[in-house]
């Protein structure tokens, strides 16, 4: 493969530390590289050096003649004086850019809900970020550098971006270097990983899952001071290997080596024990939403009724959700679907306009919000003083820990304990915020976009802490990896209804695609912008979907019985699949014939599950019509 860009013996110093020392790297045609590392170790700085936006103190960056480089930087500013159309496609005539499938794909994928001829000054911060990303992606580049491109994208938008980047170039052309904390995105897109740490850049083969395995092998040979991180990475690897087959089959590393590393690792969560502890802390009743609906006054006054009364907008309708002790649930939905409203019903911040909400007497709810307002009162105090005001001990996984030990587990150093709260980084504030909430010992914890400002190491540490937390956990996040990692069940808010997702995020994306009107020629990508321009584009148009004929009487009862029967069969198959995985784990790894037989049995069970889930979707859609 042809060489595109290289760095030779890069050296860079800031006033307080050395960022890079003698770093040599190369980027070739076909490279798809993910960059990981702790916050502050230099990931974004590395991209700026390679893209020639920052000059090194020593060494040099060389590029092939005529190479075209595009970069999305976190600090890039979108000109507020321009319209969206002017910033994205410039002065190109509409018939020219509208005839380019790539441009239509980008506009439809990122800007469907953004006014095409609107002023950028009127957009939100998230919309401006997407406009900047779209302006980059419509261009032709040999190398693309992306710094946190998934920020401000929902699960659906992240899936679109991954698909776009995978088909943007032929397999042996173009190059991508991306910094992101979204581990699903790293696994989906990247074929190599660079870890930035301690002034160096260490390369690994494969995406995030392969990187975790190689890092565990590296850490096993490290000094005893690395023991805590080794255990954490083994636990992460154990989840990756025992997780969804679609994930575990992708990394190109030796399965027998991975099994050897995790053979003595217990399951990520002891669900039976956690459920028992949750019931003892909560009782049998947590929060029940019974036939709940929520309406708000419409902001568009033109929609007022004939009598002059203000129109209303139904956000949630006929929601039935009985939250169980120890339930670990992820909530999915596009921005504006009603996720925050649903959480408000659980906490009591939102009152239903129909139905009722019943809460258990012992329920204590705490929310990790997207803002950090809770820390404002302690801005001038040192971290150690803030922690000292809270509980003196906390029980994690049956072991009593001091708040200082918990801080250490969440990545705080001894020196940082003397730092005023106002001087902490965004990620450190987020970790302190979570610790203060856990020290209050709630029994229902709500996480609203908890991954903001956190690197992959800290996400793994927080997930490890939540694994041993005995309570009910509700998570709203666009981070697919986090949702799949810390929750056991997922729901989606679709057209105001709460929908169970037996197959998780994949099923959610399928349902969203089914609701989008598309041309057959564009089935592999996102909906293209219509001929009239992106202003008319929409990500969800249920009005064009053909409704199935409604059932009544005996037909409805028959369909309901079939749905219940499918649920029972799926539960039995899930137990059989779990036993099959256990047999594979303990089977002699040198007995390839026996492993093949067990593998065939497992695949047959998974095929049966897929068929039943497809039928479950068909029947449930008929019942909901």
- Please, how many helices? 21
Kindly identify the CATH topology of the largest domain.
Answer: Rossmann fold
Write out the strand line-up for the largest beta sheet, numbering strands in chain order.
Answer: 5-6-7-3-8-9
- Into which percentage range does the β-strand content fall? 15-25%
Helical/strand content category: alpha/beta
Would you state the CATH class of the largest domain?
Answer: Alpha Beta
How far is it from the N-terminal to the C-terminal residue, by CA? 54 Å
Mean pLDDT: 79
CATH architecture of the largest domain: 3-Layer(aba) Sandwich
Find the CATH superfamily of the largest domain.
P-loop containing nucleotide triphosphate hydrolases
> How much is the radius of gyration in Å?
26 Å
**Parts with pLDDT < 50 across at least 5 consecutive residues:** 244-254, 276-280, 518-549
Specify the oligomeric state: single chain
Number of strands: 20
Biggest beta sheet attributes: 6 strands, mixed
Tally of discrete structural domains? 5
Helix content: 25-40%
- Taken from the alpha-carbon principal axes, the silhouette is globular
Q: How would you portray this structure in words?
A:
With 625 residues, this protein is α/β, with parallel strands linked by helices. It folds into 5 domains: 1-68 and 141-157 and 170-206, Rossmann fold; 78-139, no CATH class; 208-265, no CATH class; 277-301 and 310-501, P-loop containing nucleotide triphosphate hydrolases (Rossmann fold, 3-Layer(aba) Sandwich); 546-624. It has 21 helices and 20 strands. A 6-stranded mixed beta sheet has the order 5-6-7-3-8-9, sandwiched between helices. A 6-stranded mixed beta sheet has the order 14-17-18-12-19-20, with helices on both faces. Strand 15 (394-396) and strand 16 form a beta hairpin. The chain is globular. The protein starts with a strand and ends with a helix. Mean pLDDT is 79; it is low at 244-254, 276-280 and 518-549.
